[in-house]
Design a protein that fits this description.
Layout: H1 11-16, H2 21-31, H3 37-47, H4 49-52, H5 57-60, E1 70-72, E2 79-84, E3 87-95, H6 97-102, H7 104-120, E4 125-135, H8 143-161, E5 165-172, E6 181-191, E7 206-211, H9 221-224, H10 245-259, E8 264-269, H11 274-285, E9 289-293, H12 306-311, E10 317-322, H13 327-336, E11 340-348, E12 352-357, E13 360-366, H14 367-372, H15 400-408, H16 417-420, E14 440-443, E15 451-457, H17 460-465, H18 467-483, E16 488-497, H19 504-524, E17 528-534, E18 538-539, E19 542-543, E20 547-556, E21 573-577, H20 591-597, H21 609-624, E22 628-633, H22 638-650, E23 654-656, H23 664-669, E24 676-680, H24 687-699, E25 705-709, E26 713-716, E27 722-723, H25 724-740
Parallel strand pairs: 4-5, 9-12, 16-17, 23-26
Antiparallel strand pairs: 1-2, 2-3, 3-6, 4-6, 7-10, 7-11, 8-10, 9-11, 12-13, 14-15, 15-20, 16-20, 18-19, 21-24, 21-25, 22-24, 23-25, 26-27
Helix pairs in contact: 7-8, 7-10, 8-10, 10-13, 18-19, 18-21, 22-25
Length: about 750
């Protein structure tokens, strides 16, 4: 076939590859000549935002990434954390935002596939998945189509692969109309002495291509993911990858079987930028060169050019460096699983990245500089402008029961059952909680009592109003959700979704959110061990809400003492643990204000990290000692929504007392942080509750009695009673009505 690798590199061609003029000049200076066409493609793949983190690297370095349990922090395919007994949990979260907006089913499906590969590349068997999804306004013309496609894609891939989806988020806001977010999380279990890394070691060793064949799907996908959308969005559809979960399942089994043979020296998933990124990273980490022969790469399309092969993001592919004496044994494993196995290159000692095609050298570049010399920007940023505080005399009113009923049936609070029932949440037989609670919980197979908890959280409206406090709140919300099950929060992964970092106000959001995340993680001893940054989430200059999603993992030593959100029985005391003395006073940026009155005003609730730590540690103690019978952390909608969710989850009502001289709107709908509703089966006049309150007082924790469980109604003080059946009906109705066309 005819392929011109020496076409003129024009300024327009450089721009089409997502490179700035000064970046191109740096390339020329590094290699001492003009790059050819394939080399330009390789640089565009390695130097785009998605792969190089060139706008965020400076700030990511400030995050806490180490701790007594951390085995591997950022820099590998996934983070690794010790859970005792010679086992580790391996996990990461990553975005597939742009592909999912262009082609929702395949975009979401391959997002799931990619994050699963990141986990089993490390030698771990995936045991849990989550996804954090954010769509445009429900009434927007594309929203229903996108919801349908993304949810089907997540379910189609995860269910077929055989991993339970144990939790996540689904939210709607008009700011995502032109750019939805699909953040995928996966976690797996591995033996601590059998973790596999991507650093190549040894000269003259075979570089082996494994898995599915290479096609033209996803060519330029990473570069597309590093740019804003414009009116030409439909033209980007060919950059979206196509997934096959059944091939991935075979790839998992083949990789784990191969790893057990001792043949693997290094392994790297072919994710963003495909063959280019995987080969360069493996060689550069090991201070080695790599030579590839593209004529040996398995392909599924005819006449593929070297440019297409190097930039393809076809799914279900791996690259390995193997011990040569075990190559035949390794080949036999992959042939058994009916997967491609091809020796496509070798490691060298010259620190060059060479690519051969049809007997000719089509690329020859310095391998270390491809990664290490990528631009690193200290982009200008401005201090975020915070809104004025909400005036206490400017709070709109609505009867408490009416307000609660509206919120329970709103797009923000309504049950996500329609979504999670399309996912297999029980496959593998280890799931201990269905989605809908504070966190997903999965038994550690092979251990009699141990379990892992998972949660994903962020409140974007808080992050826009005050990125620093919003970043802190995303961390503490995740930490609280894990704690509310009784789990000890171990570590986190982040997915930082923002607009165009070249705009100083957007860069200011990113900087302050990272500062908030870092501060919270340090105080809570909750290190960030992996993650992803997704920038340029804009369409025609309109950016998304800043959305730094935090995915967290916690450990339960004894899952028989796990807490759930549903009330456990009647006649139990309800405590509001961690509350300010007047129970609540913060309505700024609240759901009550936004969804009932259309007002996005005020400052978000401040986060007191020391208070969060003290309160959460005490709540966890109550759960593990068996004192707490049900626990739910309070977030969107405040106390009223939290109580309603506990009642709906159990079918049991409750009667709550009003505080005298307290504003009922603030009491029931404020979103003050650091609060949990905890039920205890104790005598209200007994010695045990007196001792409990004395202990709380000594810790500086307010934990007042606010009511009692029982009956079939939720009674919020003097407000009209609401039957639990009515609350459940409203809560369950919104999503199916929306998807069936019954609501806008």
């Amino acid at each position: 076939m005819t392929f011109d690798n020496n076409i003129a590199i024009t300024p327009q061609l450089v721009a089409d590859h997502g490179l700035k003029p000064d970046e191109y000049e740096k390339i020329v200076s590094l290699i001492g000549r003009e790059p050819n066409y394939t080399e330009l493609g390789i640089f565009s793949a390695m130097w785009n935002e998605h792969c190089s983190y060139k706008s965020s690297k400076k700030w990511l370095k400030t995050l806490p990434t180490t701790g007594p349990r951390v085995i591997q922090g950022p820099g590998e395919n996934a983070g690794v954390v010790d859970i005792g007994d010679g086992q580790a949990v391996v996990f990461k979260m990553e975005s597939h935002n742009h592909p999912s907006f262009i082609e929702p089913y395949q975009g979401a499906a391959t997002g799931v596939g990619g994050i699963l590969r990141d986990v089993f590349t490390m030698g771990a068997r995936p045991v849990a998945a989550m996804n954090a999804l954010r769509f445009g306004a429900p009434e927007h013309e594309k929203t229903k189509h996108l919801v349908s496609g993304v949810v089907a894609g997540v379910g189609g891939y995860g269910n077929s692969f055989g991993v339970p989806t144990v939790g996540g988020e689904v939210e709607f806001d008009e700011r995502y109309n032109g750019n939805i977010l699909v953040n995928a999380f996966a976690a797996g279990l591995a033996d601590t002495d059998k973790i596999f890394y991507s650093k190549a070691e040894g000269v003259g060793l075979p570089v082996v291509y494994l898995g599915a064949k290479t096609g033209r799907d996803g060519v330029g996908g990473a570069t597309m993911a590093s740019a804003e959308f414009g009116d030409d969005i439909e033209e980007k559809r060919p950059t979206v990858q196509v997934g096959d979960p059944f091939t991935e399942k075979r790839l998992l089994e083949a990789c784990l079987e191969l790893m057990a043979t001792g043949a693997v020296i290094a392994i790297q998933d072919m994710g963003a930028a495909g063959l280019t990124c995987s080969a360069v990273e493996m060689g550069a980490k090991g201070d080695l060169g790599v030579e590839l022969d593209l004529d040996k790469v398995p392909v599924r399309e005819e006449q593929m050019t070297p440019y297409e092969m190097m930039l393809s993001e076809s799914q279900e592919r791996m690259l390995m460096v193997l011990h040569p004496e075990k190559e035949a044994e390794a080949r036999a494993v992959f042939e058994k699983w009916e997967l491609d196995f091809a020796t496509v290159g070798k490691t060298t000692d010259d620190l060059r990245f060479r690519v051969m095609w049809q007997g000719k050298e089509v690329a020859n570049l310095p391998i270390k500089e491809l990664g290490d010399e990528a631009p690193e920007y200290d982009r200008p940023w401005v201090e975020p402008i915070k809104p004025a505080p909400l005036a206490k005399d400017d709070i709109p009113r609505m009867e408490v029961a009416d307000a609660l009923l509206k919120l329970m049936g709103s797009h923000q609070i309504a049950s996500r059952r329609w979504v999670y029932e399309q996912y297999d949440t029980m496959i593998q037989g280890n799931s201990l909680q269905r989605p809908g609670g504070d966190a997903g919980v999965v038994r550690v197979e092979g251990h009699p009592t141990k379990a892992l908890a998972f949660s994903s959280d962020v409140t974007p409206r808080y992050c826009e109003a005050d990125p620093f406090e919003g970043g802190k709140q995303a961390v503490v919300e995740c930490w609280r959700n894990l704690t509310a099950t009784g789990a000890e929060p171990l570590a986190a992964t982040d997915n930082l979704n923002f607009g165009n970092p070249e705009r100083p106000e957007i860069m200011g959001q990113l900087v302050h959110a990272i500062k908030g995340i870092g501060e919270a993680c340090r105080v809570l001893e909750f290190p960030i061990v992996s993650g992803n940054v997704s920038l340029y989430n804009e369409t025609n200059g309109r950016g998304i809400l800043p959305t730094p999603t935090i995915g967290g993992v916690g450990l339960l030593p004894d899952w028989s003492k796990m807490a759930r959100i549903g009330f456990a029985g009647a006649d139990q005391m309800i405590l509001l643990v961690g509350a300010p003395a007047d129970r609540g006073h913060h309505l700024g940026q609240s759901i009550y204000l936004r969804d009932l009155f259309g007002r996005k005003e005020g400052l978000p609730p401040p986060v007191d990290l020391q208070h969060e730590k003290r309160t959460g540690d005490w709540v966890r103690k109550l759960i593990r000692s068996g004192v707490a019978t049900a626990v739910h952390d309070l977030s969107d909608g405040g106390l009223a929504v939290g109580l309603a969710e506990m009642a709906v989850a159990s079918g049991i009502g409750a009667e709550i007392v009003d505080l005298e001289d307290t504003d009922l709107t603030l009491q029931y709908f404020s979103e003050d942080q650091g609060r949990y509703v905890v039920t205890v089966h104790l005598d209200p006049q007994g010695e045990e509750i007196a001792t409990l309150w004395e202990e709380a007082k000594g810790l500086g924790i307010h934990a007042p009695w606010i009511g009692t469980t029982g009956g079939t109604d939720l009674v919020l003080g003097k407000a009209r009673p609401l039957s639990v059946a009515e609350l459940r009906k409203v809560h369950e109705a919104w999503f199916p009505n929306f998807m069936d066309g019954a609501v806008a």
